[in-house]
Amino acid sequence: MGLSNLLKITALLVAISATANADDxxxxxxKENSDKQYQLEKSFDDQLNVQNMDDWMKFMTSRPHxxxxxxxxxxxxxxxxxxxxxxxxxxxxxxxxxMPTPKIRLLEMVSPTKFTASLNEDALADDPTSNxxxxxxxxxxxSPDGDVTxxxxxxxxxxxxxxxxxxxxxxxxxxxIILAKYGGSWRGIKPKIAEEFGAIGALIYSxxxxxxxxxxxxxxxxxxxxxxxxxxxxxxxxxxxxxDPLTPNVGATKDAKRIKLEDVEIxxxxxxxxxxxxxxxxxxxxxxxxxxxxxxxxxxxxxxxMGPGPAKLHLKLAFNWDVVPTYNIIAKMKGSKFPDQWxxxxxxxxxxxxxxxDPISGLVVQMEEARILAQLAKEGWQPKRTIVFGVWGSEEQxxxxxxEWVEENAKELSEKLVAYINTxxxxxxxxxxxxxxxxESFFDQIAHDVKDPIQGxxxxxxxxxxxxxxxxxxxxxxxxxxxxxxxxxxxxxSDYSGFFQHLGIPSMNIGYGGEFGGGxxxxxxxxxxxxxxxxxxxxxxxxxxGKVTGRVVTRLADADVLPFQMGNMARTVGEYADExxxxxxxxxxxxxxxxxxxxxGHFKAAANIREGFVAPELKEEVPYxxxxxxxxxxxxxKASATAFDDAYKKLAxxxxxxxxxxxxxxxKIIYQLEAQLTRxxxxxxxxxYRHYIYAPGYYxxxxxxxxxxxxxxxxxxxxxxxxxxxxxxxxxxxxxATKLDEATVLMP
Length: 748
Hints:
Blueprint: H1 3-20, H2 31-47, H3 50-60, H4 70-85, E1 89-111, E2 115-116, E3 140-141, E4 146-154, H5 160-168, E5 177-181, H6 189-196, E6 201-205, E7 233-234, E8 272-275, H7 277-286, E9 312-333, E10 338-348, H8 356-378, E11 385-392, H9 395-398, H10 400-408, H11 410-416, E12 417-422, E13 429-435, H12 440-449, H13 459-468, H14 473-481, H15 497-502, E14 507-514, H16 528-535, H17 540-558, H18 567-599, H19 602-606, H20 628-653, H21 660-672, E15 694-696, E16 704-706, H22 708-715, H23 719-744
Parallel strand pairs: 3-7, 4-5, 5-6, 6-8, 10-11, 10-12, 12-14
Antiparallel strand pairs: 1-2, 1-9, 4-9, 9-11, 13-14, 15-16
């Protein structure tokens, strides 16, 4: 027997074994089609080529490629050329968007000593791309121009609770410049809150306790932030609205109507700048006033004080407010059976500097997936549903490329798009995934099917092991009860927002991580050298991500009936609703306790006079709110979800024998159910966000708020709004249950 024939037989036996060892048929597939899908996935895995991904990463990170830079266009054209070469129907979609770049950056301490911040990241001999002149300087995009001089107040992470601590010590930030640590919330929240409390300028730095020598060796010796490294980033008011600031709610095409710069409502009003902990140290050394609480203190070799002063700073910023092109790549492979049902895979291509981790580590995976699927198509495979690849521009500025495309094509996407699957940065560690909980059981199978490249167990089993040894009691208890892979809820911070939280399209965000320092994020050091040395040496987890997302895309594209499951969604929403009940009771109890202590003088009696403590004021008592609309709608949702899942299971056991007409109707109801969780008028104070189950927090940014209308009403003590949002949430859930019932009756 020839070697080639032997290899073919061996490969066939492996494929049969893999199929035979499968615990169950794939969700959404008949047993026969499950076997075919397992064979397709083996062929896909066999063709994953690490060298391709390494080569593409090395090229796309060779020069800085922020929006508006020459290499940004070259990267977009390079990616588009690859998709065309592989046979996709490919186009480059250009938008004209606002992209500020700095022309003046000055930060100096004028008293009690003189100091001028370098505002520069060092060139490092070990990192060959760290000395390039093209890189954008350290700055915050969409900071306003400003020229301010004032005393400094250290505000810890700059959260609302930190300002309460300051007030207890008689410290005000009104008319001051604040210095905040990164962490606790998204960067844009910090100047937003500071402005609300009267500050006139803001500085943000990464303390080495959180990201630097307090965690481990700093780059280039280790993975943690170099002393000169500083996190660039947009401070657009992302929780209010992402996208191009000048073209709200419409695509930023060349001819789009633009509002005036002074009419933009998603900019903070105070000049804001990121700095390194090397530049932060002299400032912190010069701050006096009360000693900061223990939980505020970092790893710098000083005593941390709150201020104000005597350190006084002069901060001067000015920007070029240019409109520049940004480029999306859209590539399609037409489906054979359901061409008007689209499965979309996305990742952005723009970076703050080189962007090896963020976003190129995800982009090279997406490109390799596309190459393999094109090759499989040449060998005879054809997806049942149309597969669309989106490669987005200007994500870093505020999810702009994807949001503009969503806004321009909203009607068609709402009609056709089954699901949007996003990746961004990636690295070694644990499989992480968040998204629509209707996709949880579907993804659970995949997480158990794909093995960790180092440990050898499934990705789900490794996450389970981590959770079993977690310090978090709730995490441990959940892991002890079940080996199920749970999806997290999505906030913001990447390109799924437009699809998910604006249009209500089922979405997921997927990536590995957890075994590397955060030191490169948005710095000059997010380089090919950093990534291949520390973040994912050998690209083992880069390849693993391809196995995961390749399965997600092909299973959604080829399922007999879309593999959504409603019980997990209903259970999760029920858990969120229970949290709201608990939050109401906790708020009421805490306010009563607080007011009792104030009235009885305990705060005043316990205060350290020498530290200038100020007793807090009485809080408004929490009224009793009618929770029954929400609770009743949750129970109805659970009943409808159970009926749907039972009918779906019966249909699956029968091999998905359903007429094409009913299959079409059923699929369409299933993937358009997510839109039932949105309201056209959107959330309070931010109508762009329409999803009533998931949204970024108004004061957390990237961090998610589930049942956001109700939850934030409680957290902000807006009791009338809370009651109104409770009713609207109930309407949303009832509408969802009604459409779910329509889907159930279609299944024989």
